[in-house]
Amino acid sequence: MVNEMKNEVKNEMKSEITGESKIVTNTTEPEIEVKTATEETGDIIIEGTDIVRTFKMGEVQVRALRGVSVKIRRGEFVAIMGPSGSGKTTLLNQLGLLDTPNSGKVIIDEIDTSRMSDKEKGKFRLHNLGYVFQDYALLPELDASENVYISLMMQGKTKEEYEAAAAEILKAVGLGDRLHQLPSKMSGGQQQRVSIARALAHNPRVLFADEPCANLDSQTSKEVLDLFKKFNKEKGQTIVMVTHEEWHAAYADRVIRLRDGVNIE
Ligand SMILES: Nc1ncnc2c1ncn2[C@@H]1O[C@H](COP(=O)(O)OP(=O)(O)OP(=O)(O)O)[C@@H](O)[C@H]1O
User: Fold this and answer.
1) pLDDT tens sequence across 148-199
2) Which intervals of the chain form a coiled coil (predicted)?
């Protein structure tokens, strides 16, 4: 069953990665100012410099990012915040190598990713980065464990290794008793936990989360954010999370705020 799903998974991952399914209606041109990382010389894991991303929509050019520079330190929990259309997802996608900027650089762990081919980027993402999306992006035909270990299979781990790793991380997110449950039998919060387990199973250098609580009620959102905080504090997991909820900022060490031409920090 899992083997049969591999191609489908690859295609789904591809469309997730390319953002092909995203519907974009906002054609305004936001101006952006960013509360950039501090001048501290801590251990920088991500350095984005002068990132420009422009989208063409027919005759209209949407300048989503107008030269954004950010530094994120290893072990930091950073929230990217700002009003709708201010470029939060676009910035996350550049930092997470899900999209390519028109100009500017993204350096991850001293690796200049602008020199990578698409294939190299794909491999880098698979082995080094983890993603959580607002719609969970789980494969409905696979149970929790299979959803988690499919990317470990693709990385070439043995059956013993990937089954053990999936069980361990699902236990860590509080789903140790639901390894073989299908997503359709789970609540939204539980599905998001599976997707967090999937994102963390290979110990990524950075976890990227795009509005992970957008479809969850406040209590479940709190549980998901508590989980992020736990992995951040206990494992030193670097997390970059897009959110528009002000109360989520309290979970982050720092906020990168995008706003139409105004730095409100
Ligand atoms: N693929 C695309 N094609 C055309 N325009 C796009 C595309 N992606 C984003 N944009 C535009 O770029 C700008 C920034 O979009 P982005 O999704 O990054 O903002 P956001 O801050 O994440 O917004 P929201 O909070 O509503 O998700 C918007 O004007 C948006 O319409």
Assistant:
1) 999 899 989 999 999 999 999 999 999 999 999 999 999 999 999 999 999 9
2) none
Task: Report the distance separating Cα 58 and Cα 233, nearest Å.
Answer: 46
| CB count in 10 Å sphere of residue 75 | 16
Q: How far is the CA of 27 from the centre of ligand 1 (A)?
A: 8
Q: Give pTM, 2 decimals.
A: 0.85
| % of residues, the chain, pLDDT over 90 | 77
Task: Give the burial string for 4-19 (b: 16+ CB within 10 Å, else e).
Answer: ebeeebeeebeebbee
Report how far ligand 1's centroid is from the alpha carbon of 7 (Å): 29
**Structural domains in the chain, sorted by start:** 2-257 (3.40.50.300)
What is this model's ipTM?
Answer: 0.98
Token couple for 222: 């709190």
CA of 52 to the centre of ligand 1 (A): 13
The residue whose CA has the least distance to atom 28 of ligand 1 is 85
